């Protein structure tokens, strides 16, 4: 009689947790997803899905429902705060042909709920309201215990529980590594959803960046055309460490915040002003990342646990690669783990986890650093500092070969279609 499939404990039901569970199920494993939140709601804002991430979703038939429901990005344009074009490219219109998938935006909550539905359809258990308290490894298993005393035991455990990962803190402490809190980058973001104003109508499919004194405004398609909505985000400096609660403002807070925001953006071009004025939902949050972990610290002391996604390499959002790198992680880990029919022993796990960490750490560490640098550039001050920033942007767009090479380095992974 064939032995039962190895049980896999996956901590976190954001993006990487469900995706990894679905990929491992295809290889014969029996994953279970443990999520501290009792019910996923309409939290967060929009995120960018690029070809490297969408290729992974496509393996699970999850890409097409997204890419066919929202306008795909066809062009990127940079502008000054007054609306003067700095530069841009139409190369995104060719990315589907080049890389196998386009680029598009999606509401984070829409993606989360789609992944939750996929877990249910695949028969993968999802335990919500399950807050991790401890992890204990033995020679042949790992046991996770919740804050209420519930226990789950499996062959191995994957930490997919985000930037403030409880699993990461436990596993690093067991390794004797002193863990610090996520690092505040000194930047905050305000994300909004607006009824698509007149200045934006007919311009769907363009990812736009507006650069002003100490502020950056981005908008990209992330809603179905018939919804008549446009998402956007503002990045600026702040000394206040706003924690990423992802909760929307209530009506009174929104009214007061919009009044102050309109004053701050007085004189900006019509498109920005109208989007701010038409905001129906706004959230504000601080931007955090972490210093890069050495690859060996991605894997637990006992060799049966590994970190994935934001639990391993949380990043600020300025390169649009956070979710996409988490998806790359999922593909690489599932590829490196043996098929169940080939047998899964402790040595095989350690080899797979070690190879995964050594493969992924250099790329993700470079992107975390690059995202932080991009954020600093975006919020350059006024006067000479801002003019220098804008001129550097113009120079960058003039070298189209360099622009193409930069995007190719981001988008070609994790495999070729």
Automatic annotation (TrEMBL):
Keywords: FAD, Flavoprotein, Monooxygenase, Oxidoreductase. GO terms for molecular function: FAD binding; monooxygenase activity. Residues 7-369 form the FAD-binding domain. InterPro entries: FAD-bd, FAD-dep_Monooxygenase_BioMet, FAD/NAD-bd_sf. It comes from the Eukaryota. Belongs to the paxM FAD-dependent monooxygenase family. This is FAD/NAD(P)-binding domain-containing protein.
